[in-house]
Every structure is written in C-alpha cells, then in structure tokens.
Amino acid sequence: MVVTSPAESRPTPRSLRHNRDFALLWAGQATSQMGSQMSTVAYPLLVLAFTGSAAQAGIVASATLISTLVFLLPAGVFADRLPRKRILVTASLVQMAAGATVVPAVLTHHVYLVHLAAVGVIQGVAGAFYLGASKGAIRRIVDPDQLPAAMAATQARTRAAIMVGPPAGGALFSVARFLPFAVDAVSFGMVSLAAALLRKPLDPGCVPAREPLRRSITTGIRFVGREPFLRMFAIWAAVLNGAVFGVQLTVIVLARNRGANPVEIGTLLSISASCGLAGALLATQVIKLASGRALTLICSWTFAAASLGMIFVPSIWLIAVLAGLTGFALMPVNVLLTARSARITPDHLQAQTSNALTLCYSALSAFTPAVFGALTDKFGPYPVIGLATVVYTLLALWLQSSRRLHDLDSEPAPATEPATATTTGAEPEPAAAPAG
Q1: Mean per-residue pLDDT of the chain
Q2: For the whole model, what pTM was predicted?
Q3: What residues make up the domain containing 170?
Q4: Residues 6 or more apart from 148 whose CB is under 8 A from it?
C-alpha cells in the first residue's frame, strides 16, 4: 500500500487560462477598469469645459475616493454576509445607472457640479461593496497555489488600464464629450454580466455566529491587527503608498523646472507605468529568482535609492527610468503580499480583511499629495524629494528588522475556519479545491 501526502493526493489544478470563471471575471473587470480610467480624465475635462475651475474639477474625484474609503469597512461586512455574486452584479448595475445619467446631462448641456459629485459618491459607495466581494470571489474560484499567478494577472490588468485608459478617454472626449461616460457606463454593464455568468459558488461554506453589526464593522481591522504578517503588510503599504502618491506631484514639478514640456512629462509618466506593467507581466518569473523576503527588501531599498537618484540625475529621462525601476520592483512584491494575505485569511473574512487592508494603505494617500504639494511650493522639489528619500530609507530599515518578513518564505498555515458554524445554504467546499 502506497501512502501519499495531502499535497501529492490533491489533483493538479487547471491553468488560469482554462479556469472559465477566473477568465470571465478578469475580462469583465478589465473592461470596467478601462472605462473607469477613461472617466478619470473625462470628468475633470468636463468640469473645466463648463466651469473653468480646477478646484471644482477635483471635487468629483474627491467625492468618489472619500465615499469609497468611508464605506470600505461596512461594505466588507455585507460582502461577507450576503451572497457575493449578488453584490457583484448589483454594485456594477448601480455604478452603470449612476454613470449613465451623465450622458443626457452632457447632451442637453445641463451639467451641474452637484450632479457629478452625487454620481461620484454613488459609484464610490458601490465600488466599496464590489471591491470586498470581488476579493472574496477570487479566493473561491482560484486554487490557493495559483493565487500568485492570479494576482499577477490582476496587477497587469490594472497597469494596462492605467496606461491606455486616460489617453483613450481624452481622445473620446475630443470626438464627443458624452462618449467616455457612455463607454464607462457600458463597461459597468459588462462586468455585471460577467459576474452573473460565474458558475462556481463564491460564498464560504460556513460562517460563524454573526456579531452585532456595529461590532462587525471593525472585524476586518481587528483581524489585520491580530495577524502579525497582515499588520506588517498594512503598515509598509500605507507608508509607501503615502510617500509615492505625495511625491508624484513633486517629481512633475522637478521635471518642469528642468525644462520638460507637458508632452515630455506625460511621456515620463507613461514610461514609469509601462515598467510597472512589465513587472506585473513578469512577476511570476521574478518570484522564482529570489526569496520573498529578498524581493521585498530589494523593492523597498530601490525606492530609497531611486528617490535619491532623482535629485542628482541630469536628465528627465533618467528620472523616468528610476521611477520605472520602482514600479517594476513593486509588482512582484504586490503579488507575493496579496496572495499570502488571501491564503491566511478565512473565507468568511475575505471581504472584510481585504477592505480593511485597502483602507490602511489608501488612507495616507488621500492626504499626502496636498501636504507634499504645499511643501514643494514652500521649499522647492529637491528638499521634498530628499524628505521622501528619508521616509523610504526608514521604511526599508524597519522592514529589514521585521521577523514577519520571513513568513513570505514559508508555507502558510491553512486559514482557520470557525469551529461552530452555520451553513450558508450551499454545500461546503474544501478551501483548497481545484479551480476550474
């Protein structure tokens, strides 16, 4: 009699390319992200065209961001309690309906800031629900061993949308002002259809007895705080993202001061984004070259070195290369960190934990651009980039001393499911069931 280990007896999962549900959801979300990136540039252009006010142009984006951040935690609770498929479909339809109202407003020349801000709020709230449910869905339709590849594909999709979406939105706006908003609304309909066509059950097989809603809102944050690895991830990502988003405007000012024109500045940002896309596409191969701890430390020190280099390099194109290096180094680390986070989080907490982590690493990013912008106005770009270098260096030193970083190189323990549970109405499935 031959005894096999659990790893040996588990069937080999299908490749992601043959995972129907993952491919369907990935394609739908790619379409939606492309449409959203078109609107990112179309909304400011629309407001500027009707009001000429840069301050008012930023209100729509702020309304969307703030409403998303405010609702991340409660949305995560509902995304773990209610059927995730229903949330994916409903949230996308709400975003489609809200965005579609902009089209007749533009066509009839009845564009009002309060209307656009309301659209931003509605789409931001719905986006918070969709974000939590989609992270929980990925964990159910992808085999745990394939999570790094799934996260790499997701990162590549996002980077491609960031590269292509804004110029496409600008081009459509120049043809007809309503077009980017119409395309965005259709893209939400496409992702809603993709979610409706998913076959695999997306909900956890069992859930613990429910806490009161008021206490449940903080469940995701409390889980992140209790898990040393997630706590380290949240702190590192929060500080890194805050510095990156803050110093981005300063780098643009630096390039302009060195004589770069708007086209060259746009090209600089495109080079950086393209390097990030390359890093996402090659993430699974890069991960095989070194340990997770080594890759994360290399990434963190790359930010410090690149930031320092921007002060001294003589050419804006070298600034673009340095920025591109950070984007390339970050993508494999993002894949490693998000994949491990998904694997160590129980199914019934996937949405809450994901939204809590998103809140952690997005909170500082909402404020640092204004802070870094004010400092740049007062002191100039060089001292501010020097400040960012100090922040990156301290963050790398802290990360190097963290014992939790070694966890990336060990097999994670299976996520602990509740001992006393109530079924959700579906037959429970093993967490490591092959996707397909």
Answers
A1: 82
A2: 0.72
A3: 12-208+421-436
A4: 283, 284, 287, 335, 336, 339
